[in-house]
Structure formats: C-alpha cells, structure tokens
Amino acid sequence: MINSSKKIFQKARHLQPTTYNLPPKKGFTVIELLVVVAIIGIVSGIIVASVSGSKAKGRDAKRIADISVIQLALERYYDEKHYYPVYLSSSGNDDLSDYDSSVPTKDSLDNNYLYKVLNGDNATACSADCQSYHLGATLELYNGILADDTDLNSEVSGDFDGSDNTNDTFMYDVLPKF
Ligand SMILES: [Ca+2]
Ligand SMILES: [Ca+2]
C-alpha cells in the first residue's frame, strides 16, 4: 500500500503542468448586461403577476362562497318571517345581519356585497313584505360561474346592474334559489 502510494507520487512529480492558449478574459458588454437585466425584469414581472392573480382568485372564491352563505341565511330568514329583509346590513331594524350577525356582508377588501329587495316579479321595487331579492358580488377576475349567473338589470332604483362585461366587469349576481 505504502509502495504503491510512493509510485503514484513519483509519477505525479514527473507530470508537466498543462497550459492552454485561452483568449484573454473579457467582462460582459453593456448590451449583454442590459439583456440580462431585461430578462430578470420580465421573469420577476411574470412571477408577481401570477402571485397577485392567485390572490385575486382566492378572494373571488371567498366572494362566491359568501354569496351562498348569505343566500342560505336569507332563506332561513324567509322561512321564519315569510318575506326577505330590506337590507343585508344597515342601521335599520330589518337587516339580515341583525337576524344573524355571523353572515358576511363585505368581501376581504371591505367592499359591501350588493343587495336589493324586489317584488316577486324581479322587476319592481319593494319596501315591505318583499318576496324576492337581487344579490351580488363584484369579482376581480373572470370566473366560469359567470356563465350561469342571473345577469339581472332590473332598472329598479337602488338595484345594481348584474350584467357581465367579459373584459372588465365580472358581476356575479343571483336571485332566490327557491
Ligand atoms: Ca353572466
Ligand atoms: Ca352577472
């Protein structure tokens, strides 16, 4: 073992260092640096956009879920009183949130959900003993659920326009389920 190590050492001593004719070292050119900076900018822009897009998607999912929660509470209210509350939340006495304070009335960005009581025809204004309602939330991104929502534009004073514009307005709106 010691002998073979010695032999290897002796062989290694006779090896000549190898030299290569490498071109002289150059730094990056300004253009190369600019290209790298531009690529980093584009990549980080894509990452930021996808992260903020997924956050918006999450907020929209919560809005859609909240609308279902509100609808269920509205039906419980209706079962008891045989009419829908005039407001989701206000200082008045006939509010859904007075009936059940756990029901969400705002999204995570503090925007109120949209709500208007209507008569049973879904086309005329109602102020008491209301038999229908129009409920909605503005989504941040297009969502497949918009293909099957109500899109009601009743033109009743105080009601919101439930129409969707596939470019910029994603208004998820519903009427009573039953
Ligand atoms: Ca729609
Ligand atoms: Ca709509």
Low-pLDDT stretches: none
| β-strand amount | 5-15%
**Rg estimate, integer Å:** 33 Å
Question: Roughly how many Å apart are the termini?
Answer: 91 Å
Percent helix range: 25-40%
Number of domains: 1
Oligomer: single chain
Q: What's the average pLDDT?
A: 88
Short characterization:
The chain has 178 residues and is α+β, with helices and mostly antiparallel strands. It has helices spanning 2-14, 30-81, 96-99; strands at 114-118, 132-139, 170-174.
Please render the helix and strand layout as text.
Elements lengths: L1 H13 L15 H52 L14 H4 L14 E5 L13 E8 L30 E5 L4
Antiparallel strand pairs: 1-2, 2-3
The structure holds calcium ion (CA) (2 copies).
Describe this structure as you would to a colleague.
The protein is an alpha+beta fold and 178 residues long. The protein has one domain (34-174). It is built from three helices and three strands; from the N terminus they run H-H-H-E-E-E. A three-stranded antiparallel β-sheet has the order 1-2-3, with helices on one face. The protein is elongated, with a radius of gyration of 33 Å. The N and C termini lie far apart (91 Å). The mean pLDDT is 88. One calcium ion binds next to loops. Residues 146, 149, 151, 162, 164, 171-173 line the site of one calcium ion.
